[in-house]
């Protein structure tokens, strides 16, 4: 689909400088711009590229005044970065605006769905599934029995959503996500063998949640594993049974959260963090990457380390960590000197 500079300026509330009829059908970096693409200039470090870019349209600040002749049409806006982000969002909406049911796919007779459904080929909708309006389900997706999904939800290829899962409005679920698999529940006997503990709860995903590719969220043993509204989960995260993640918390890739842990609101958790089970993490907590958490964390703490300690305490200790070989060498020399004098 092609757009003209005039059309894009209308979307961004910008001013065209150059050819209002210039057409584009793709996005590009400014240094890699080609004819038919649109780019943006927000960082002054990239200013030199605007004079050599072959992009047909470039979004710039209203304050930008070229010092050389340009071959690209300009769209002047208040904030080029925000404007380009808005354009990316609009582009995604257009690109993903699919409707219809592709064959082959399976829809149970008891399943129901709202307006503008897109169901990609080789997808499965189980018994009593309920889908809202504007749900887009891409190919090779499994939706189990009694799953409820709200409005304006995007589910990318290969996602697996097990039975009884509840998903709210405006959620994005990327490829390879598994929601509602059994929690890791096994009971050992006297011989050291394990019996499986049935996992009969479910998973609840509230509104405006993003779940990255390959992330897994286990169903509760009893009750619900809950991801509160506004949560953002990166790729390849493991969330165990009966965990609760509070509103607007963001968690980076490869983090693992053990069973029955409660995480508060507005937390920021770095990559490769390990969180033990049955603990409570307060609101607005910041956890640095590769930390290991085995205790309760109070509101507003910033922590780092494995096992995690206070962030400032860790930084002070790290100064000494770096010098341990030198300290050890000095101690050896002092001990030798004392021994020689003795």
From TrEMBL:
InterPro entries: Hexapep, LpxD, Trimer_LpxA-like_sf, UDP_GlcNAc_AcTrfase_non-rep. Keywords: Acyltransferase, Lipid A biosynthesis, Lipid biosynthesis, Lipid metabolism, Repeat, Transferase. GO terms for molecular function: UDP-3-O-[(3R)-3-hydroxyacyl]-glucosamine N-acyltransferase activity. Pathway: Bacterial outer membrane biogenesis; LPS lipid A biosynthesis. The active site is at residue 241. It catalyses: a UDP-3-O-[(3R)-3-hydroxyacyl]-alpha-D-glucosamine + a (3R)-hydroxyacyl-[ACP] = a UDP-2-N,3-O-bis[(3R)-3-hydroxyacyl]-alpha-D-glucosamine + holo-[ACP] + H(+). Residues 23-89 form the UDP-3-O-[3-hydroxymyristoyl] glucosamine N-acyltransferase non-repeat region domain. Signal peptide: none annotated. Homotrimer. This is UDP-3-O-acylglucosamine N-acyltransferase.
